[in-house]
Amino acid sequence: MTTIASMTNMRLKFPGVDSLLFEDFSLSIDRGEKVLILGPSGSGKSTLLQVLTGLIPHAVEVPMKADALTIPESWGFLFQDPDAQFCMPYVDEEIAFVLENLQIPRERMDYYINHYLQQVGLNFDDTHTKIQTLSGGMKQRLAIASVLALEPEVLCLDEPTAMLDPEGTKLVWDTIKNVGEDKTVVIVEHKIDQVVDFVDRVILLDENGTIITDGPKQQVFDHHKHVLIEQGIWYPGVWEDYMQDKSRHITTPGNTEDTKPAVHLSDFSAFRGKVKALQVEEAYAHPGEWVTILGENGAGKSTLLLAMMNLLKTTGTYTILEQDYKRIKHLAEYVSFVFQNPEFQFVTNSVYEEIAFSLHLAKWDQEKIARRVNEMLELYHLEDHRHTHPYQLSMGQKRRLSVAASIVKEQPIILLDEPTFGQDAKNTFAILEQLDQLRAQGTTIIMVTHDLNIVKNFATKVWRMEDGELVMESPAPNYLEMLQPAVIS
Amino acid sequence: MAMDFSYKETWLHKINPSLKLLIMVFLFIHLLMIHNTNILINYMVGMLVLYLFFTGHPWKRLLVISIPFLLIFLTSSTSMIFFGKGEITWAKWGLVHITEESFFRGLHLGFRGISFAILGIVFALTTRPVYLFYSLMQQFKLKPKYAYSFMAAIRLIPLMIEEMQTLHYALQVRGVQGERGIKEFYKKIKAYSIPLLSQSIRRAYRIAVAMEAKRFTNHGNRTYFYRLSFSKFDVIFLCYLLVIIPLSYVTATHFPYFSITDVRFGS
Question: What is the ipTM, given to two decimal places?
Answer without folding.
Answer: 0.85
